[in-house]
Amino acid sequence: MKKNYIVFAWLVALLFSGNLVTAQNTLEASQFGTLILDYLKENKDQYNLQNEDLENIIVRDSYTDDAGVSYIYLNQTYQGIEIFNAISTVVVKDNKVFYYANRFTDDIVNRVNTTNATFSPEESIIAMANHFQLSNPVGLTQLEKRGNSYLFSNAGISQRDITIELVYSQQDRELKLAWDIVVYANDSSHWYSVRLDATNNEVLDVNDFLLTCTFEKDHTHNTPSEELNFYNEMVSPSSVLVDGASYNVFALPAESPNHGPRQLVVNPADPVASPFGWHDEDGLVGAEHTTTRGNNVFAQEDRDGQVFTNGFMPDGTSTLTFDFPLDMNQPAEGYEAASVTNLFYMNNMMHDIWYHHGFDERAGNFQSNNYGNPGLQRDEVVADAQDGSGINNATFGTPPDGQNPTMTMFMWAPVGPLDDPLEVQNGIAAGNYSGVEAGFGGPLSTTPITTQLALAIDLSPDVLDACNAITNSSFLNGKIAVIRRGDCEFGVKVLAAQNAGAVAVIMVNNVAGDPIVMGPGAQGASVTIPSIMVTQADGEAIISSLENNSQTINATLVNNGPFQIDGDFDNGIIAHEYGHGISNRTTGGPSTTSCLFNAEQMGEGWSDWFGLMVSMYDTDTAAEARGIGTFAVSQPTTGLGIRPRRYSPDFTINELTYAATNNTSISQPHGIGSVWATVLWDLTWAYIDKYGFDSDLIDGDGGNNKIMDLVIQGLKMQPCSPGFVDGRDALLAADTLLTGGLDQCTIWEVFAARGLGFNAAQGDPDIRLDQVEDFSMPPSDDPSLDNCSDLLSINEFSKDRFKVYPNPTQTELTINTTESLGNVSISLIDVNGRVVLNLEKDLLGTVTLDTSNLKTGLYILNIKGDSINFNEKIIKN
Fold this sequence. Notes:
Signal peptide: 1-23
Number of strands: 33
Domain Secretion system C-terminal sorting: 804-875
Subcellular location: Secreted
Low-confidence stretches: 1-24, 216-240, 789-799
Shape: globular
Domain PA: 465-542
Helix content: 10-25%
Number of helices: 15
């Protein structure tokens, strides 16, 4: 990525805001200091805290919203040194502690290992650079020091100046003194936040601000004949500050080109969230930029994938008309203007929509100019389109408030091999060959590369695999190198050929079967030449021709299609990436973006949900299961997408419950996050069923609008490093704050159905495998359930009137009820989501299911009717 195009005008004071233990940000000196301290001391036994654990607490962040509710984010310290991520949330309303989410650690005094660092900040930065192979720091210079926080020059190892702070890192029951170092690697592959033991420079733990949305490896959706134009719903034509801008894009709610047509939208900027339009930065009427740059996002092309190079930005001229042709049946550079425009549009839409649901300047949103509102500025999103540093992915990096986040959108490989990209023009192997393009390096162009073929020869046992030093470098100059797949990384081999002067590489598979997409490994980011893999049979024929033929053999490499798929048109993935910024800035306060790296965190789930919410049509129903990223991975809209299950409240489609987070076949963090998104999606439809759907995502009053408010509120209220139960409790508290608790029963019923019931236990949120699910509702006398509807709860049935037995079962499973539940659907679902038994019946008295033919294992019993939606785990012995 390129970072010279923005003057990163963070003042040093902004970089260090919230990190200093001073009279201004100690809890005692804060506005609600006495109130909060009294509350903590009164409730310390509940959290196993001692008075010593509550000394010298600092306020990392605090702000008050338009409703007069204050959010205070507290950080524990010991002798002036912060305990990393020991950040608790306090919500104050009407001068009372409304909600407290604890993340303080206990018995600090007896757990710290030392108060003196053995290594200096400079020594630890050098050690960190060596550990992560970032090259040797050059000219490392201290720029500023405030308390335990330092700012150093980038020293040639980081795109941004290096921050380092003395902290305590919790390691089991010990608090180890550590240096917390933040470095943004020059190749944009990592944005490290690393804790190094300050006594021995050993790496204690590592976070990466640069989140990558790796996919796990079909809802025929008829595009509505009359498309909903979201802008007609959201834009006030009477706004005095509209700039007349227009954009030809895949307009929301279209998730992608497969979900809806391109539309020319006019004046889409919301007059509240973006009062001077999307191309402003100075807060005066009139756009400063006629390109895809403005207050909320700076979008440009980055096909070279190189740092510190300027990329193309389409120019809408003085009329701000961004209407460019689009033909995707060509390499990406042929439609770059349309691509960057869509990326610019979508980032701005995410900004404006979620601004109205609570992600505003105070909460740490992304704006160059806050227009006089609280919060730090100069942190608009830097968004790179068609980025050439990777493939089949997307990333978002979220630093603390006041620093620019980065979004990187890659191309995605089309299904199947390229259409005969290789032609060998003479020799015994003359002919046309199919191949698969690498996932790194320069893409093949429609402009042919025609030159001589040459074997790359090295000293390894297989002299053609380029895993050791190439011995015929001079001969490879200007030629297409032919290399056999071996035991070393593809990036190493192709880079070696490139360094020898080769203009392209043909990789020969060393096993039978189809060629694969070659991964970059550690060196691939430095590769700029194109490369393809061919089958073993084809490649060995070419090698034999070169070995046995004395004549010069020429070949042509060219891209005949199918062409790569541009992720910049997948609005769902863009929304997902932007969602990482929302969840990271709101959890633990805007100056802390390290709170969602624990084992049980739900960041990927929130991001999936953000994408789903902005791409709902008013014709959608709960029955239409949703996949994520189907366009990018060349699937129909009914496809599975990049998650282990499609999102649906129907357990026959998505049976995942809380216990699935313990299943290591579910990946971390993406698979774990998908379980959380499953629950949120169920809750979304429960809200829509109750309140209806409103296509106006900004000022609407439907169930979808209400849950958008709820989720942002919950993010602000949960503690740092939350688990699923923390997230559930924050949503319950958010409902009480927003409505007085009108939807407590709805929330409990949805969460209980997915195993996050009253007795669910998350254990340690930093441990992956200690979650305990539970399907029960709170006790019927719980005052939070006073607003429940007539929907009969699982808890009511389970006591006397509703029984399922025996469990575990062998041959029969009995359902018994003393009260008529009407006509219900009874299903048993296996762990792969398959319905192995289904029947409809009027449920009164006893129903017996034959389980004798089922395989041993775990099943979900689902009973669904007008007055019940019951789920219970069943074990078959």
